[in-house]
Each structure stands twice: as structure tokens, then as C-alpha cells.
Amino acid sequence: IVRLIPKFEAMTKPLILVTNDDGVSAPGIRALVEVAQKLGEVVVVAPDQARSGMGHAITLENTLRRTSINYFEGIEAYSCSGTPVDCVKLAVNVFLDRKPDLIISGINHGSNASVNVIFSGTMSAAVEGAMEKIPSLGFSLLDHSIDANFETAKKYAAKIIKETLKRSIPDGICLNVNFPKRGENEIVGIKICRQCHGNWTEEFDVRIDPSGKEYYWLTGVFINYEPEATDTDIWALDNNYISIVPVHCDMTAYSALEKLNNWTL
Fold first, then answer.
1. What is the dihedral of CA 127, 193, 233, 173, to 10 degrees?
2. How far apart are CA 157 and CA 34, in angstroms?
3. Cα(122)–Cα(103) distance, rounded to whole angstroms?
4. Which single residue of 100, 122, 146, 243 could bond 233 by disulfide (Cβ 3.0 to 4.6 Å)?
5. What 8-state DSSP symbol labels residue 85?
6. How far is CA 152 from the centre of its chain?
7. pTM
8. For residue 7, pLDDT beyond 90
9. CB 201 within 8 Å of CB 220
10. Alpha helices (H) in the chain, listed in sequence order
11. Phi, psi angle pair for 51, to nearest 5°
């Protein structure tokens, strides 16, 4: 294997891998790179185009390619033809000569709170990092606009990254960080919380293309199943807090184990 990225052994700064799911040219990743480059040695490996909603998808049937890019001044950066998880796998196992000290993903355009964490490519990149026992953070801003203002998110992202580098995170766990669409003077604080129990009422808008054929556009409304709960990420965001939810890949429903063990099998 030929590794093209220089060795980092002599560097004293932490090595920070930056990725996302909105694509390497998205404004959100540029904002995150601006924060990260003040805190460590940064390498960017991100999808060459938007890969939102990919979840933990990996590429198996197609080849993967990377391209050196100069989107970020003074930062070694590569676009990858694969998914966010592909980007992390390739960076950790092939491109870099040592494990990153931190993986940060985002800043995503749109919420990854509650059940969105399941679908999120942003968070799946962070989960992949956690599976590699690398401290990992996923950042999302509740604003889908291409002109979203990331200044408040950048300030708090820097604070959270610094604390993570100082204290680390337990192995196998990453942090899902969501920023409300609020100015700095409107932010109440940071709240450590749990994932809200909710789901989307999925609808498909049926449309007709220019050739007269039907196509379908997924829409829907989020339903909060526990609107009175005050310890969830949705409550925190609705009340102008930044939410932080610890996440891991263990999807075992422990509450069901005892009942299932009583089945006659």
C-alpha cells in the first residue's frame, strides 16, 4: 500500500480527521475545519458529493477513489467517491500513518436529533470512529439553508472539541451534538441528554416527470412521542440549548432480554 499523506510522528499537535455527509464543498465542513485547524493538525477526507441519509452504508460493489483537493488553505484534504463511513475507514486504515486523536463530522446542514441519528451519514462517520476506539463527535445545525450562519456553532464546537481532547470519551462511544438555529445571545447553555423517542410520519409526494412517468419524493412530519419529557435532545433544542447525546453502536434492546428468555424455544 502506498501512503501519500506524510507521517505525523514528529507532530506534537493532536491529529484531527474531519469528514461529513453533505460533501467536501459544503459550507458546514468549511466551518468545522476553521475550528479544528486552531486545535490540531487537520486532515480532511470527505465525500465528493452529498451523501445525506446514507446511514452506516459502505461501498462493496464499486471501486473507491480519492482526489487531492485544495478547498482549505494549508490543509491536506481529499474527496472520496464513497460514503462518510467509507471516508473514515479509508483514512484510518489506509491514508494515515497513525490513528487520529479525534474524528469530527459535520457541521451537518439540518438536525440529527432523535431518530435522525439512525439515518445520518454525519453520525455514522462518528459511530465508525467510535468503533475504532477513536474519540469522535458529530455536529449538526438545525438549518438546512446553504447560507446558514455557523458562527455560534463554531464557538461552541471549539469548546466541545477542546474538552474532548482534554478528557476523551469512553471507548465505543461518540457524541451527537446538535445546535439550535439561534444566535449566541439566545443560547441558554449545553445540555447532556438522551435521544428523544419519536419518528417521522412518512409520506410520498407523487409527481410526474417531463416524460409523463411517475416519481416519488419522500416527505413527512416529525412526531415527538414524549413531548412532556425534559431530558431529551428535542426538548433541549426546542428550549434553545445545545444538545449532546452519547451514542454507541450496540442496538441490543436490553429491556426485552428477560421476556424473550422466557419464551419456549
1. 0
2. 11
3. 11
4. 243
5. H
6. 18
7. 0.91
8. no
9. yes
10. 27-36, 84-90, 116-119, 121-131, 151-167, 233-238, 257-261
11. -130, 35
SS3 232: strand
Q: How far apart are CA 180 and CA 243, in angstroms?
A: 8
Q: Can you point out the beta strands (E) in the chain?
A: 15-19, 41-47, 66-69, 76-80, 102-109, 136-141, 174-179, 189-192, 198-208, 214-224, 241-247
More confidently predicted of 10 and 100: 100
Residue 67, strand partner residues? 79
Q: In this structure, are residues 125 and 20 in contact, taking their beta carbons and an 8 Å threshold?
A: yes
pLDDT digits (tens, 9 = 90+) for 45-104: 999 998 988 889 999 999 999 999 999 989 999 999 999 999 999 999 999 989 999 999
Report the residue count for the chain. Answer: 265
Segment 130-155, tens digit of pLDDT: 999 999 999 999 999 989 999 999 99
